[in-house]
């Protein structure tokens, strides 16, 4: 029996998992403490001056509790720090530490090499086309009726 082709969201999730696994294994091989995918995503959404956990949760598309758990793991590793929010006495800002910046830069450089490995495997043109397609504007998510 032939299996139906995976839908695009499953294919994209599989591709992301491939990158996550390659990054985790590469960072571990380099002697770095491996981070979860959620922890790694936190770095992409932090403002240089700091970001509240509530804003991080919104940007990540997760609950505050989930964002809080990711942040606390990174605080414990010394990759993030909490500082008072000058705009609000009630809030605290989450910022990257010097060690966090070092690890983040290493991860970004590693991802560049992993992208190169993917381009070697699927072809440079296919990799460039994939990157281009994923950067095109998609607009608001559509609301559709199934046939």
Automatic annotation (TrEMBL):
Show the SUPFAM superfamilies listed in the entry: Winged helix' DNA-binding domain (SSF46785)
Q: Name one Pfam family in it.
A: MarR_2
Q: What is this protein called?
A: MarR family transcriptional regulator
* Species of provenance: Streptomyces cyaneogriseus subsp. noncyanogenus
Record-level Gene Ontology MF annotations: DNA-binding transcription factor activity
Domain (HTH marR-type) ranges:
5-139
Organism domain of life:
Bacteria
GO BP annotations listed: response to stress
Q: Could you tell me which InterPro entries the record lists for this protein?
A: HTH_MarR-typ, MarR/SlyA-like, WH-like_DNA-bd_sf, WH_DNA-bd_sf
């Amino acid at each position: 029996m032939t299996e139906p082709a995976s839908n695009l969201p499953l294919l994209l999730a599989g591709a992301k998992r491939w990158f996550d696994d390659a990054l985790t294994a590469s960072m571990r091989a380099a002697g770095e403490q491996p981070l979860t995918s959620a922890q790694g995503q936190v770095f992409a959404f932090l403002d240089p001056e700091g970001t509240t956990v509530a804003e991080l949760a919104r940007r990540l598309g997760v609950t505050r509790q989930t964002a809080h758990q990711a942040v606390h793991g990174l605080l414990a590793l010394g990759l993030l720090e909490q500082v008072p929010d000058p705009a609000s006495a009630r809030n605290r800002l989450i910022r990257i530490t010097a060690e966090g910046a070092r690890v983040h830069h290493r991860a970004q450089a590693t991802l560049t090499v992993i992208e190169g490995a993917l381009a070697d495997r699927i072809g440079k043109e296919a990799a460039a086309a994939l990157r281009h397609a994923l950067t095109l504007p998609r607009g608001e998510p559509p609301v559709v009726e199934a046939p």
